[in-house]
């Protein structure tokens, strides 16, 4: 529960006592030779607020049953009469069951409180004015005023001891509250003590307990930064150290300084491994500084683009000669992606998105018109809007909860989750059958974050309206053009069909072993950027991966999915809803709903940016045996722009048998559920397996926060969509961020794009985008 305002710094020497020295401004302050700790007013205020509450709570627990409802001292703890009905661990059920957990927890509370009290005592008794000009003086102010004064420091060993005590107590607070006291205990006991509550008592419980997670966790971060900085800047111990060794250290330091100065004038040799969106973005950004970098881009594939691929079609049969069969499009936030398109003479095309969720009257809903399912879950949709606000304002607490836990915590029905929320998240985040384990923060981002959302929350229909999406140009050609630009104009060396492993990685550089069909060789580089999936990055690092890299990268969970591209309209219609049938339409209770239904039932006509009539592009359906599991599909002829260009504005669409469809079967381990055997094998155009990561809640508790601790360390940076969210745009931003860390300039071309870049840089690198870099050059 303690943080510091500054990292260790030098101050003037502490003021002598009044008895020994006359009052003089020259005698106030702290020695410039001593390390000091600088307490903050905010932290002290938090301790003064929280310690009495913890002691009051401890007294209640240890004095039970006299402190409980009906006890002789209950008047002092009357608020616990209500709280004991919310959380049974504090009420009669746990006490009558002789549950000793509450008392054991209280003893730990008292231990950590002792650490905090010691910290406050040291701040009061040993604190000194921060500078000679400071007006603060313990002798001239009350105890409270002195504790809350912002301009004081605690010097020397006693300050370091207090800092360590506060840090240790904060660790105890966070771990006890998060792991033992409340959250995980409730989860693994099936919410035995709080599962009986209605909505608002649960909210109160989460806020009251979440406060003791959020504040100490933040203080741990700041406090840990001070400790790490202190250790990093600490001078070597002189006791027993030979003078010759001291001279050697000085000579070595000078040598390293000279070497740094010399190499800074030379070009850095950068190896970028992985030529997908992240690797190409990194190379393109670094290539704008040819005087600073020699670049080598390496990939085991024989073409650039990674998962962004295209396949050829028979135009006489399907109306178009190509199809993007991996990455297909994105929203208006894909600013960096569109910029790279423009630089290579390509462009994205607008389309008004139509989506079909579920199969059958009891499971279907869409963003195009109202359905009976919307009427059935109207009350839960309204409640869901309130929960989105709770997630937003309590993000550090609620944001990491798995969606399945959130739904249970706020007592949503299983049907609402399976039929509405899970398919929605699965489709737009590509999380598939791992969606129940996705962090709830992503659910809120889909509706509340302008950098991710497609729809604003609609309490009348959850999602409604036709958001504008953008379909990508022919990605095979785009990435081929991008490769030629890098090779021919920007002199980037590109090695495709090349396997890589790290042979050596130390202060001298990175030595890579590179193998093709023809030869093997080793080459040394100054820095390395791994733009490969996390598991592949670990394989490349091999035994030279640090424990931090193993921990962070090992937390990324991948699943194998398969996409089948086909023209089997009969199969597609049997598993997805493709038409606005009467039984799927809800009541026209408002003018807006009448217009939506009229639009959906209108004759289908091609437009430049979509279709009139119900012509869905994205689809999901749930398995009857496991309704939390889904299949996804695309009608590419409705979605991708090249098909609409072939049809022509104002014309009717091609017959269903001439459409190109994609069905995505998720998680090979659940292959027994798949319906792929029902697809006519004569109508299969292509089959492609994908290695996709899951946006599990553990990903945002372990991987994303851990990236800043491995990025830029050991001459290695990491990039890829897996570092945050599975989007082509995030892949591009991650590559640009890696280039920025290596010394490239970020081109500020759009305020929204700059904001996204800044947030990514802070989240995954722990680096703030420098204010001077935000100015247009």
TrEMBL record:
This is Amine oxidase domain-containing protein. The chain crosses the membrane at residues 43-63, 158-179, 199-220. It comes from Aspergillus versicolor CBS 583.65. It comes from the Eukaryota. The lineage of its organism: Eukaryota, Fungi, Dikarya, Ascomycota, Pezizomycotina. Residues 13-25 have a biased composition (Low complexity). Residues 1-33 are annotated as: Disordered. The keyword Isomerase does not apply. Keywords: Membrane, Transmembrane, Transmembrane helix. InterPro entries: FAD/NAD-bd_sf. The keyword Membrane applies. Pfam families: NAD_binding_8.
